[in-house]
Amino acid sequence: MIRTMIVDDDALVRLGLADLLDGDPGIEVVAQAPDGLKAIELATAHRIDVALVDVRMPRMDGITATARLRALPHPPKVITLTTFDLDEYVYNALAAGADGFLLKDTDPAEILRAVHLVAAGSAMLHPTAARRLIDRYHAANQPEATAAKARLDRLTPRERDVLALLAHGDTNADIATRLAMRESTVKAHVSRVLTALEVTNRVQAALLARDAGLTA
């Protein structure tokens, strides 16, 4: 059972998401918060596996809340929610440690899929809006490319192959199939990639790969 928390200042959004998530037999909504401050309090009191966090909220916004949630002793995975498909704050949330983001008008089935993927350790990078956002942000920050390339030089050729597929949003199972490897071997490679690149999750590794030009 995936224990989730919904963080949004709109009560109707919280209600709709709660109905959707609770309708999945593998997901349970254990907490709801109207802002980031309350989310930190609830995440400290409850074991949360995945938090769906709005970007724009009073008292504490979703970006700050994401960083605070990820810094907890038992941090939940975070999926950032936004109304805007080209919102630079979403990139900042990903950089703060979120494992993906969704638009609030995302198809319900995709929201459920995202929760399951993120809970399993994958990243939700597939929405077209997410890819456009990341690409546009990094296009304006080309000086970062040199530093990113230097960090990728720490990887073996096989680890670079794994990173390239990870950056496209492939799951460990997908990577294992594409590279003819055991899934356990892929997990080991991913762990070494994160350590070598000095990042904390797959999203940050994917961003670094894009900075370095490893993916289009």
Describe it for me?
By secondary structure, the chain is an alpha/beta fold. The protein folds into two domains: 2-136, Rossmann fold; 142-211, Winged helix-like DNA-binding domain superfamily/Winged helix DNA-binding domain (Arc Repressor Mutant, subunit A). It has helices spanning 11-22, 36-45, 62-70, 88-95, 108-119, 128-139, 144-152, 157-167, 172-179, 183-197, 202-211, and strands spanning 2-7, 27-33, 50-54, 77-82, 100-103. The chain has a five-stranded parallel sheet, with helices on both faces. Helix 2 (36-45) runs parallel beside helix 3 (62-70), helix 8 crosses helix 10 (183-197) and helix 8 crosses helix 11. The mean pLDDT is 86.
Specify the CATH architecture of the largest domain.
Answer: 3-Layer(aba) Sandwich
CATH homolog superfamily of the largest domain: Response regulator
How much is the radius of gyration in Å? Answer: 17 Å
Shape: globular
Question: What percent of residues are in strands?
Answer: 5-15%
The average pLDDT value, as a whole number, equals 86
Question: H/E element string?
Answer: EHEHEHEHEHHHHHHH
Note the gap between the termini. 36 Å
Strand order of the largest sheet: 2-1-3-4-5
Whole-number total of structural domains: 2
- Which CATH top level class of the largest domain fits? Alpha Beta
Instruction: List how many beta strands DSSP finds.
Output: 5
* CATH fold-level name of the largest domain: Rossmann fold
Major sheet attributes: 5 strands, parallel
How much helix, percentage-wise, in residues? Answer: 40-55%
The low-confidence parts are none
Number of DSSP helical runs: 11
Structural class: alpha/beta
Oligomer: single chain
